[in-house]
Amino acid sequence: MRFLKFKKSFILFCLFFYLSPNVSFAYADHSCALSNGMVDEADVCAAKPISHFVYFTRIALCKESPGSPAPKLNLSSCLTIFESEYSSGFRTLVDSTPDSSPTILTGKPLPPFTEKDYGDYFYGYVEISPIMEASAVISFTSPRFNANKTSSGTACWSLTGTMMSVGSEDILTQCGNLADASPGLTTSIINSLGGPGILVERQFTSSKGDLIQAYLLNSSDTIASPSSGNLNDVSKVIGYLPQKITLTATTKQILIHYNNYQGVEVTQHPDGSIQHFAPGPFDIFITAQ
Description:
Number of strands: 22
Helix content: under 10%
Structural class: mainly beta
Shape: elongated
Oligomer: single chain
Radius of gyration: 19 Å
């Protein structure tokens, strides 16, 4: 059986998903400015979560670019190194604390690597569920309100509930004193890769300058057709980018390093109210040992 582990690690990323929900006026494209550990800006920004759950369905190494899902992705050169036994994916806690003890992913049994699998791979490919979960407590340098202004304070936290990336205006935050914070897990259903509007295709640039391609796909691996407030036929979020990985006869395991120090989007309205804390970016870097 192929030996695959997840390991939390603060390193330069090679796969960067930014799946945070969109609001009509802005979406996060940067880390929150901090002053003594507190958010010191009134824009939409990305911050450190308490927890961030992602459902991985497939991870693969590819010798050629998977290309475009229009008409269909080309995965003929790809070697699957993880595949969930559940259609909903393998639920993984992607938190922001370095951990020297990797988590072993449990998926479908895969045959050991053979001679035909050895060689260089030039792309990393990941499929995840469009459902993600996150919790957060964020401190601010000045008081904030929840969206209906029923609570206020210099700390705001996530509440238990479900929202869509686009077309959901649920109020899923509470604000008050930091000592009173009691965060819940907010579930986000990804029906857009950003904004404004519905985006089913998006490119990102990593800090290393690599171009990352992401899509929302249906079960036929073609472009999905979500709408505002509706997931419709979206079954997965996929992303790939150039990354060289070499497998040899001595390869014993593959590590998937990750961190998400920007793992929640702080969705602030211009009046200082906080709509929600939703899943933001997380980073993946694949290595073979």
